[in-house]
Amino acid sequence: MLQDAEARFRAAGYPLEEARTALALGRVLRRLGDENASRAAFAESLRIFTKAGARAWIAVVRAERDGADACRAPLPDETGAWSEQLTSTERSVVARVAQGATNREIAAGMVLSVKTVEAALTRAYRKLGAKSRVDITRIVMARPTV
């Protein structure tokens, strides 16, 4: 069904929907154990999102392609949501990082200094056990929020 939907979006000229469908297909194929087909679907999704300049989606696809579940850092409490561990500012910063925003873009959007964003992100890294922005994206995509 996803392959059919992807072809229909392509024919209708909806590239972002086509790419989102390819991403979903890649996830399903990975769960079914077809790693080669999964990687091909992720590559197609990444190609379309890159062409469209959709940075947040590019980060999501890369995290999935690189095996989000296999590589993500474990949270201290695997049963809770990632957002339970963070302050409201840290949650907002982490959510924007997961969408692909730079520290400067986050600061401008939240009306904060870049230093404040950096400090909140540093605390969030420690609390979530993340080592990079990609880890943050993986955690956000793999875990529910409150």
UniProtKB/TrEMBL annotation:
Keywords: DNA-binding, Transcription, Transcription regulation. SMART domains: HTH_LUXR. Residues 79-144 form the HTH luxR-type domain. One of its GO terms (biological process) is regulation of DNA-templated transcription. Signal peptide: none annotated. GO terms for molecular function: DNA binding. It holds the Pfam family GerE. InterPro entries: Sig_transdc_resp-reg_C-effctor, TPR-like_helical_dom_sf, Tscrpt_reg_LuxR_C, WH-like_DNA-bd_sf. PANTHER family: DNA-BINDING TRANSCRIPTIONAL ACTIVATOR DEVR_DOSR. This is HTH luxR-type domain-containing protein. It comes from Actinacidiphila bryophytorum.
